[in-house]
Every structure is written in C-alpha cells, then in structure tokens.
Amino acid sequence: METKYAKETRCFKTSRVFPTDVNNHETLFGGRLMSHIDDIASISASKLCRVTAVTASTDSVDFLQPIRTTDSVSLESFVTWTGKSSMEVFVKVIREDLRSGERKIAATSFLTFVGLDEDNKPVPVPRIIPETEEEKKLYETAEMRAQMRKHRREESKKFADYLVSTYPWE
C-alpha cells in the first residue's frame, strides 16, 4: 500500500480580515471561515490521493477566539489519518493581531474526504505517516474520532427517516 508523509499534504493560507468579512459583532463571519476551512482541507486531501476528493463530512468547527479586522487569519491543514478510501483532514486557524503580533488559535476543525475515480467510485488512498508531535497526537486519536463519526452518521440516517421532504406551503 502506498504511503505519504503528513507534511506532503500540508497547506497554508493567510488572509487579511476586511470590513466586508465581518458580522454585526465586528468579528469574522463563521460561514466565511468555514468556507476557507473546506477549501484548504480539500487541497490537502487532493495532495494525498491525487484524485478527486469530496467532502464527506465536517465533524466539527470549534470557534475558540474572535477574529477581528485588526487581525490576519492563517489556516494550516494536513491529512491526519486515512481509512480505505477516506481521509481525515485537520485544519488549524491562527489569528494574529497585526498591531501587537499576538497569535492565538482561533478555531480548529476536522473534516472527512473521500477519494473518487473518474466514475465517482471510492478509490483506495495512501496511508499517512505522522512525524511531528502534533501529527502523531492527531494520528493516535483519529481512530476514536472515526468511530464517533461512524456512529453519528448511522444516527443521522435513522433521524432522517423521521423527517419530511414536503415544503410547508404544499
């Protein structure tokens, strides 16, 4: 089975936060940040498998610190774990106060992607090899997250059976 180092999937993106990026609290729109997270995570996933990689789930986005117009926002992503055709991608969001230089972890996120062939069928993906302490910790704890993800998906499918698909005005 093919293997790749986590560092081979690492991506970085830094942006300035403009007034059009913030909400009425003068902090970065959560949806805008989530879009940036999905974007950079998809690049890491594609760098691992070199085929089309689609988002299967966003396990979590934990907003830890507000991001303001006086800040820059940096995202770092890399693949932390792989299954047969799926992969877990971690995204770390760092806000930096551009006046003081103070940096804080503003958000973290875990997403799952699946590699697909030309017929949109899942394909095997390379195994990931962690090297840094951060990569190793995320790798060691990934199996637990994968089990929680599987359980949550099963529960979501059961719950969906109770939902109606008609519009309220029908």
UniProtKB/TrEMBL annotation:
<dbReference type="GO" id="GO:0052816">
    <property type="term" value="F:long-chain fatty acyl-CoA hydrolase activity"/>
</dbReference>
<dbReference type="InterPro" id="IPR006683">
    <property type="entry name" value="Thioestr_dom"/>
</dbReference>
<comment type="similarity">
    <text>Belongs to the acyl coenzyme A hydrolase family.</text>
</comment>
<dbReference type="InterPro" id="IPR029069">
    <property type="entry name" value="HotDog_dom_sf"/>
</dbReference>
<dbReference type="InterPro" id="IPR033120">
    <property type="entry name" value="HOTDOG_ACOT"/>
</dbReference>
<dbReference type="GO" id="GO:0009062">
    <property type="term" value="P:fatty acid catabolic process"/>
</dbReference>
<dbReference type="InterPro" id="IPR040170">
    <property type="entry name" value="Cytosol_ACT"/>
</dbReference>
<feature type="domain" description="HotDog ACOT-type">
    <location>
        <begin position="7"/>
        <end position="119"/>
    </location>
</feature>
<keyword id="KW-0378">Hydrolase</keyword>
<dbReference type="Pfam" id="PF03061">
    <property type="entry name" value="4HBT"/>
</dbReference>
<protein>
    <submittedName>
        <fullName>Acyl-CoA thioesterase</fullName>
        <ecNumber>3.1.2.20</ecNumber>
    </submittedName>
</protein>
<dbReference type="GO" id="GO:0005829">
    <property type="term" value="C:cytosol"/>
</dbReference>
<dbReference type="GO" id="GO:0006637">
    <property type="term" value="P:acyl-CoA metabolic process"/>
</dbReference>
